[in-house]
């Protein structure tokens, strides 16, 4: 069964810093990887989706990369802002079935 | 806007009293998912529907049931809620057979069991 790990579990940075969140997965036979943001007590908001054939995706200040062979993805956030404070989760979908496997998330705090 | 809607947003039920959570979608996606998420934990997949085909995760308790009467709606029934079932319940949709299989989530229902 696919295991997804996110390190660190929590991260605190001053406003304006660039930062990287990590996601690793044990089975490289994935169809895609999706990064989400979750605010306290809320649902998940999709940030970026990377297909298995892609190396990276960008949206505004966010850049997600995928190295399928090593089972890793990173989410890069440029010029962090207090409004970026949230929990960031990654999820992978395998090549078979319709299930998505989630990591436990990284809780990000951006200090003004 | 196309979206995933969950009702109610907050639900309080008594120990052992059946409860139903609702999810609807305007995306016309053929896959619908129910996740349970407890504090500081990853969402845990309970089951999903691919069209009318029901797929139960092996470790989903029998206390949890689901219905999907049509493409747009999916329900989560908890037959006899226990204190351990207090959690956020998240509904999500995806289009299988499309090019991306991106997942879209609703806002969640926070279930409290008293």
The number of strands of chain B is 11
Quaternary structure state of the chains depicted: heterodimer
Distance between the termini of chain A: 41 Å
Task: Look at the structure and give the mean pLDDT of chain B.
Answer: 93
Roughly what fraction of the amino acids of chain B lie in strands? over 45%
Specify Rg of chain A, calculated over alpha carbons: 13 Å
**Gyration radius of chain B, in Å:** 13 Å
Could you tell me how far the N terminus lies from the C terminus of chain B, measured between alpha carbons in angstroms?
36 Å
Q: Helix segment count of chain B?
A: 0
Shape of chain B: globular
Please sum up the structure shown.
Chain A is mainly β and 112 residues long. Chain A has no helices and eleven strands.
What does this structure look like?
The complex is a heterodimer of chains A (112) and B (114). By secondary structure, chain A is mainly β. Chain A contains no helices and eleven strands. In chain A, strands 2, 4, 5, 9, 10 and 11 form a six-stranded mixed β-sheet that branches. Chain A has a five-stranded antiparallel β-sheet with strand order 1-3-8-7-6, with no helix packed on it. In chain A, strand 9 (86-94) and strand 10 form a beta hairpin. The termini of chain A are far apart. Chain B is mainly beta and 114 residues long. Chain B contains no helices and eleven strands. At the A-B interface, strand 4, strand 5 and strand 9 of A face strand 5, strand 9 and strand 10 of B.
Itemize the secondary structure elements and their pairings.
The complex is a heterodimer of chains A (112) and B (114).
Chain A: E1 4-7, E2 10-14, E3 19-25, E4 30-38, E5 44-51, E6 56-59, E7 62-67, E8 72-77, E9 86-94, E10 100-102, E11 106-111
Parallel strand pairs in A: 2-11
Antiparallel strand pairs in A: 1-3, 3-8, 4-5, 4-9, 6-7, 7-8, 9-10, 9-11
Chain B: E1 4-7, E2 10-13, E3 19-25, E4 31-37, E5 44-50, E6 53-56, E7 64-67, E8 73-78, E9 87-94, E10 104-105, E11 109-113
Parallel strand pairs in B: 2-11
Antiparallel strand pairs in B: 1-3, 3-8, 4-5, 4-9, 5-6, 7-8, 9-10, 9-11
